[in-house]
Design brief:
Shape: globular
Radius of gyration: 18 Å
Strand order of the largest sheet: 2-1-3-4-5
Largest sheet: 5 strands, parallel
Number of strands: 12
Number of helices: 8
Helix content: 40-55%
Distance between the termini: 34 Å
């Protein structure tokens, strides 16, 4: 990962992030509005987006939805909205992570590294003996080798890197209960052990994309208080 688009309307934050990220070898582009961010993402596609929610022209959640209409680029939200509802809305719109202002640069860099791990880990993971290259979830075929999801009518379903990482972990262990703690540790990192709201949001997203009836899932199963399992 080398190109990061930073979207914020506070000049001090833009300047600080540009200096710190460039010092660590990242190519940084900045945008002060949602409109400018969407245009920049199209003209020079980034490898990751760091996005403030409180922009002067568009709400950051609308920017997330605009990006998710055509790209799976990882999105880390930077926001002064500390309430759980704001986190849920942003994650449900397609954000991959959420950092509350004020924040430390070291924390943000750790979150960027965590997303980088999710991007890199899935294709290289060795399949368990019980896993198959192609799994079925409802009317969908999931190919873990080339990371494609195809409906029975031939339509391709796009998943974000975080959605892929979570689905990959479940499908490589069919029938096995994967604990909440293990999923959080393996997909997001050890510093996320208590962010169970992330699991709920991403499981809901996967079910909407893959299950015939997301409200009554047959394959992506929640074991209340324990974790999740893939039921072939």
């Amino acid at each position: 990962m080398s190109r990061i688009l930073v979207v914020d309307d506070e000049p001090q934050i833009l300047r600080a992030l540009r200096i710190n990220l460039r010092a660590r070898g990242y190519d940084v582009e900045i945008a002060e509005t949602g409109t400018a961010a969407l245009k920049a993402a199209v003209s020079h596609p980034p490898d990751l987006v760091v996005l403030d929610l409180g922009l002067p022209d568009l709400d950051g959640v609308d920017v997330i939805r605009g990006l998710r209409g055509w790209t799976t680029v990882p999105i880390i939200v930077l926001s002064g909205r500390a309430g759980s509802e704001a986190k849920v809305v942003a994650l449900d719109a397609g954000a991959d992570d959420y950092v509350t202002k004020p924040f430390g640069v070291d924390e943000l860099l750790a979150r960027i590294r965590a997303v980088t791990r999710r991007l890199a880990a899935t294709p290289a993971d060795a399949a368990s003996p019980s896993a198959t290259a192609v799994s079925r979830v409802g009317r969908h075929s999931v190919n873990l080798a080339d990371r494609t999801v195809t409906r029975d009518d031939g339509t391709e379903v796009r998943l974000t890197p975080t959605q892929w990482a979570m689905l990959d972990k479940l499908l490589r262990h069919p029938g096995k209960l994967i604990s909440q703690r293990q999923l959080l540790h393996d997909v997001w990192g050890p510093e996320y052990d208590h962010e169970t709201n992330y699991l709920r949001q991403y499981m809901a997203q996967l079910r909407r994309k893959l299950e015939d009836d997301p409200a009554r899932p047959r394959h992506l199963i929640t074991e209340p208080g324990m974790g999740y399992r893939y039921r072939p």
